[in-house]
Amino acid sequence: MTATVFIDGEAGTTGLQIKSRLEGRSDLTLLHLKDDERKDTGRRKEMLNEADLAVLCLPDDAARESVSLIDNPETRVVDASTAHRTAPGWVYGFPEYEPGHADKIAAAKRVTNPGCYAISSVAVVHPLITAGLLPADWPVTINAISGYSGGGKALIAEFEDSGSETYTDAPFFTYGHTLSHKHIPEITQWTGLGHTPVFVPSVGRFAQGMIVQVPLALWSIPGDRKPSDVHDALADHYAGKRYVSVVPLEETREMIRLTPEILNGTNELRLHVFGNEDSGQAVVMALLDNLGKGASGQAVQNLNIMLGLEESAGL
Predict the structure, then answer these.
(1) Is 116 among the residues known to form the active site?
(2) Which domains does the chain have, with CATH numbers?
(3) Tell me: the pLDDT tens digits for 250-262?
(4) Pick from 89, 203, 195, 188: nearest CA to 143
(5) Which of 53, 55, 63, 116 is catalytic?
């Protein structure tokens, strides 16, 4: 018997991406609501409780409502919203987070899918803290640029709909200037940092793709650390992982530029360590598709793990 999956919010950007990755699979049956039923709480409740697994692609409050509608103890949930990313009882949906974490996802009834900026930041900082290379109380700064699809339909319209009142022809802009972006609590908790990092996000005039940068003044970190130490800690942490890789230092040294779109359409997260031993500095850069490993791809990976299916199916 195939597993049944209901995407609550399948008409949104992430929902459509997940739907396209699941359609046509012989190991799953997708449950759907008619267009005029999507806001019918009763029908949504029926589908949520009928499904073996529900994927929530909703605003935070709506995601919380969906969880409250589930009374079938066998229904499992992957929540792609921000609502439960630091909530007790929810497993963080980053299988490569640390050894044994994929097993926790496999056994979980409730999994919270990471944010795109967050999964990148956590992928960089958490291994450095657990390896003892970076103190947990270190003042970490994170700079990032994402494609505009990360902002959903409203931001897509700003860049693509010239007739929209909010249309912009800007090539690039920063935001989150209050330093209170919604991913910060998630980043702080799952990196293991003792203090809130300084996080500066931005958006460029490209649809998909992302680069997240974590600069490190190695000269100021106890232990006479070198860029190779940073690379080794990350490479050890992700050794043998299918979807997270660390580019060899020799290859990185030859790179004169890095563009955010080269992993689009994949579920990969690729880490680069750029360094200068003379100045005692390094920058770790995470590259991914914000709609892949940063959203729908990661949700499908979690779904596969939870249902005991081939982890790479649909990816």
Answers:
(1) yes
(2) 3-114+295-306 (3.40.50.720), 116-290 (3.30.360.10)
(3) 999 999 999 999 9
(4) 203
(5) 116
